Amino acid sequence: MGYLDHLSHLCSHTSSRRKRKTKETVEIKVKMDCDGCERRVKNAVSSLSGVTSLDLNRKQSRVTVTGYVEPNKVLKKVQSTGKKAEMWPYVPYNLVDYPYAPQAYDKKAPSGYVKNVAQAFHDPGSSPSENLTTLFSDENPNACSVM
Fold it and tell me: Contact, 67 vs 51, CB < 8 A?
């Protein structure tokens, strides 16, 4: 019995595998003024293991990295070039309910984007939950008296 327990114990340890990283897309805002800045960022990020594709957009100050990487490691690697970098703070304009909400509209944002802040999205708990179809219904005693 002791030999079988020892053998099953050995088999249980050999079956454990390392957790595989998931494929992610990381977007980072980096101010790049010239070709040299762009080249430094490109070389730094492409040296990371697990990077499958890299897209640099100098006009939008945006670096998009796709691969089996961790977002914080990519951010640290870009910051190691001496450039000020942060995670991409913008969302497309058409995904936001209130694009001109305070703190959402940013003059420095690329065209078609606004800042990703909570005030720009619709919060169902903050507004009255009254349905517009029952607001002007004949069955609703509190309906508008204009009807």
Answer: yes
Tokens representing 130 are 């009254």
- Cα gap 121→114, rounded to integer Å: 11
pTM of the model: 0.64
C-alpha–C-alpha distance, residues 108 and 88, integer Å = 13
Helix 71-79 vs helix 35-46: crossing angle, to nearest 10: 140
Instruction: Enumerate residues 6+ apart whose C-beta is below 8 A from 121.
Output: 96, 97, 98
Res. 47 pLDDT band, cuts 50 70 90: very high
8 A C-beta contact, residue 114 and residue 104:
yes
Helices of type H across the chain = 2-14, 35-46, 71-79, 132-135
Cα 26 from chain centroid (whole Å): 7
Q: Which stretch of 62-76, 93-107, 132-146 has the lowest confidence by average pLDDT? A: 132-146
Q: Which DSSP string corresponds to 89-110?
A: -EEEGGG-S-TTSTTT--TTSP
Is the separation of the CB atoms in 30 and 41 below 8 Å? yes
Nearest-angstrom CA–CA distance, 60 and 38: 12
